[in-house]
Design goal:
mainly alpha, 2 domains
Length: 127
């Protein structure tokens, strides 16, 4: 997420806990949760305040985003990588990892796995 999105995230939280949001707050939050997708972080804040009255902290956001990503992966199930990768264990693992990241992000895992397969083919052809 961008620094502006961190401000937006804190603004959502402020709607529930009446905190003041300054540039320093946004910078601090961004340094801790800036690697998370904004949409997931915002959803985490909304879910948190549906269940709690205490002020949300960055660790609460990280925990809920991690749980949401794991649930997406469990719900979808990681598909098998392309069969041509079966004899290339590093590429096979990379395809599985790419699929898990895509599913966690809420994206289709197939393009990510196909990109790994294309890269593996190019490396095989170059050797």
């Amino acid at each position: 997420m961008t620094l502006d999105e961190a401000v937006d995230l804190l603004t959502v939280a402020a709607a529930f806990d009446q905190r003041t949001v300054g540039e320093g707050d946004a910078m601090a939050w961004h340094s801790v949760v800036g690697d998370l997708p904004f949409a997931d972080a915002k959803q985490a804040v909304l879910i948190y305040y549906a269940e709690h009255r205490e002020r949300i902290m960055p660790a609460d956001v990280r925990q809920r985003v991690t749980e949401a990503r794991k649930q997406r992966i469990l719900d979808a199930g990681i598909p098998a990588p392309p069969p041509e990768l079966i004899d290339d264990p590093p590429a096979y693992r990379a395809a599985l990892r790419a699929a898990a990241v895509a599913l966690g992000d809420g994206r289709d895992p197939e393009p990510a796995m196909q990109a790994i397969a294309r890269q593996s083919r190019r490396e095989l052809e170059a050797s």
